[in-house]
Amino acid sequence: MTVPKVIVIGAGPVGALAALYAANRGDNVEIYDLRSDLRDPSTTPLNFTKSINLALSERGINSMRHARCEGLLDAVLSETIPMHGRMIHGQRPSGELYEESQQYDAQGRFIRAVDRAGLNKRLLEHLEQMPNVTLYFNHKLTGADFNRNVAWFEQRQQARTDHAQNPTEDTSMKAEPERPKEISVEFDFLIGADGAHSASRYHMMKFARLTYQQEYIDTLWCEFHIEPRAVDGSFALSPNHLHIWPGGSFMFIAIPSLDKSFTCTLFAPESYFASLSTATSDQLVSSFSRSFPGVCPELISPTNLKRQFAENPHLPLISIKCTPYHYKSNVVILGDAAHAMVPFYGQGMNAGLEDVRVLFDILDAHDVYNDSPKLATSLKERRGGALNAYTLQRAPDAAAINDLALRNYEEMRSGVISPIYRMRKWLEETVNVFLPGLGWRTQYTRVSFENQPYSEVEKAVARQGRVIVAAIGLGVFGITGLTALGLLRRGGFGH
């Protein structure tokens, strides 16, 4: 039997994990990425920043756990920092700065801060050790025929390190570059994991009747950096929290790094960025001090704040939904290529890694990797059925987490200091601890510490919400009734 050839577009975490799953099932795997080797520190990631910390939670961990790759998960987890909850920062009317910890989970479970480049490096190192895997960097997908199963790539000597949304290279004085060499590659199965601006999806849309929705929300983001304490090199903040400065319509967050610094992000409407961009240096510092008390000058000096805001790009946030995720038995898209989401639930990477596990569970269930000659259907038929089942199962889940991530922005920027939010969180966690048989958990617990399908999470939380509203209504009705009864016993109303 001929060994199937699987090509993966995109060597990021999702593409690399998909390649591991395929290779460990015996496929010959080739990985193509338009960037230079992602293990090279000089390679600029697709988000145009050198350092980005991500939240790794159960779904991503579970997907690596099932990769059949000994030592991978231990190596990844050894380079993470536990984050047990949010640390909310603010300022009292008296001017006193405060911080308040909000644990993520009543059972003490935690998410982990992980360096994206470090995670990617571990995955690629394991891939490189496999004899049936070949890595091709500086290869840009330029076309694909998903009926004939052939793809075309441009071979580039050096990948471009900027993007139309964030141009950093001045090419006006450069000589016309030599046209890159184009190659064609035949395949049995193509997995597209090449991000929100996916070339795989673009070319698949020429064949599949794909429904596509794209939305840029009215929020930009800019990265900042908090250095370790100068006196002793320690963390400037608690390393076991995700730090949030909620601002109503905007927020500032900080995530710990292994070098004891913090990677920070400002999220705000475009109008807010525009006002800061035209502000004087003193006005910029004053705005930060007012909106995010305790950040400047306590954690970031005025000089560094001005420099980072001026030099680091101000980038948009995109939300993408589409369906189907496949065409026939020949191609499937995963991760951001299928369902890019805003980052406010920390689930973008985790959902993408979970895509891989769910896809290969379904491929296994449809006997795609069963080479028995007694099977009644062909490999292409079995794979086609599996990909159809994958789209039917995964598209509703991806749409659900996409919507949950959008809604969680409101919670992070303002809800975390709302009495109603705190009351519901306390109630759900109390019921979870003392009446576990009822199956009540907070939405965050269901999303971040379990593997329940996202669409089921959304439904379960909605049911809990209706019960809480009904209980509050009954409580108010009961209190009103008791008050009325008391007044009647004392001689009626108005006397």
Explain what the structure shows.
With 495 residues, the protein is of the alpha/beta class. The chain contains 14 helices and 19 strands. It has helices spanning 13-23, 58-65, 72-77, 116-128, 199-204, 270-277, 281-291, 302-311, 336-339, 348-365, 379-413, 419-434, 443-448, 454-489; strands at 5-9, 28-32, 53-56, 80-83, 85-91, 97-103, 111-115, 133-136, 139-145, 150-155, 181-186, 189-192, 211-226, 241-246, 251-256, 262-268, 315-323, 326-327, 331-333. The protein has a seven-stranded mixed sheet with strand order 6-5-14-15-16-13-17. The chain has a six-stranded mixed sheet with strand order 8-2-1-12-19-18. Helix 1 packs parallel to helix 4 and helix 10 (348-365) packs antiparallel against helix 11. The longest helix has 36 residues, at 454-489. The termini are far apart.
Give a quick set of tags describing it:
495 residues; alpha/beta; 7-stranded mixed sheet; 6-stranded mixed sheet; 38% helix; globular
A few lines on this structure:
This protein has 495 residues and is an alpha/beta fold.
